[in-house]
């Protein structure tokens, strides 16, 4: 059987001399692994479609038991203008790309709302000329809603946010002992489309640590992104 779907590229790896293993989150089938053969052929160079968070339309063979689905045709879908060329934006999407890729590997059922969230969030980042320094924090917070551990917003006037429980609290937990609730409240109420950043530099650094710890607490075998140090350099 031949199927067609839009897909967002999450990662890729060269396989043999001329093929690519491409991991995508698809619009119709969730997370899927594909093989793209003859990717580097001079006559039919398909590899230029394959880069992080590019949206493509693919036609593939689905009538085999192999977890790798063979791509028959590939075309460009939505065209992003700045997220891959602006050094700050590209560093941000590299960072969140690592997290999205590791957390969606078992999400092999269709979730159109999740697909649209990823795509529309990237579009929002793409069209912004300024005030996008907190996109990675904003994205990860709202991404957590789709993978099952979005914070409870009740009692946001309490001085602490309990990272283990994902709730606002009157007492500090053993993970974050500082009065951190104000940072979480700022992020929970932040509108990325507004003409301002959510945090100053020191707050951004603290919130990055907070949200990575939050993911580590709530996602089994979570690995901190390799690109974390690059992201920190960008915002230092």
From TrEMBL:
Q: Does the keyword DNA repair apply?
A: yes
Task: Specify the species.
Answer: Apibacter mensalis
Q: Name one GO cellular component term.
A: bacterial nucleoid
Which GO biological-process labels does this protein carry?
Answer: DNA recombination; double-strand break repair
Q: What is the lineage of its organism?
A: Bacteria, Pseudomonadati, Bacteroidota, Flavobacteriia, Flavobacteriales
Protein name, as recorded: DNA replication and repair protein RecO
- Cite the DNA replication/recombination mediator RecO N-terminal domain residue spans from the record: 1-77
Q: Name one Pfam family in it.
A: RecO_N
Q: InterPro entries from the entry?
A: DNA_rep/recomb_RecO_N, NA-bd_OB-fold, RecO
């Amino acid at each position: 059987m031949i199927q067609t779907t839009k897909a967002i590229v999450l990662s890729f790896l060269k396989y043999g001399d001329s093929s690519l293993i491409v991991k995508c989150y698809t619009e119709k089938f969730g997370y899927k692994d594909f093989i793209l053969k003859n990717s580097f052929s001079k006559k039919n160079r398909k590899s230029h479609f394959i880069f992080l968070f590019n949206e493509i339309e693919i036609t593939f063979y689905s009538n085999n038991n192999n977890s790798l689905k063979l791509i028959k045709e590939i075309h460009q879908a939505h065209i992003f203008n700045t997220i891959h060329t602006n050094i700050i934006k590209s560093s941000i999407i590299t960072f969140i790309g690592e997290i999205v890729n590791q957390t969606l590997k078992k999400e092999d059922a269709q979730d159109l709302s999740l697909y649209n969230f990823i795509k529309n969030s990237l579009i929002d980042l793409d069209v912004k000329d300024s005030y996008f320094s907190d996109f990675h924090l904003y994205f990860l917070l709202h991404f957590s809603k789709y993978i099952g551990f979005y914070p409870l917003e009740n009692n946001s006037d309490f001085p602490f946010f309990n990272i283990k429980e994902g709730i606002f609290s009157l007492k500090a937990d053993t993970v974050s002992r500082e009065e951190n609730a104000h940072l979480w409240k700022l992020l929970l109420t932040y509108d990325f489309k507004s003409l301002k950043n959510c945090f100053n530099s020191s707050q951004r650094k603290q919130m990055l640590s907070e949200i990575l710890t939050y993911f580590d607490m709530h996602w089994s075998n979570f690995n901190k992104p390799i690109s974390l140090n690059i992201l920190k350099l960008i915002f230092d």
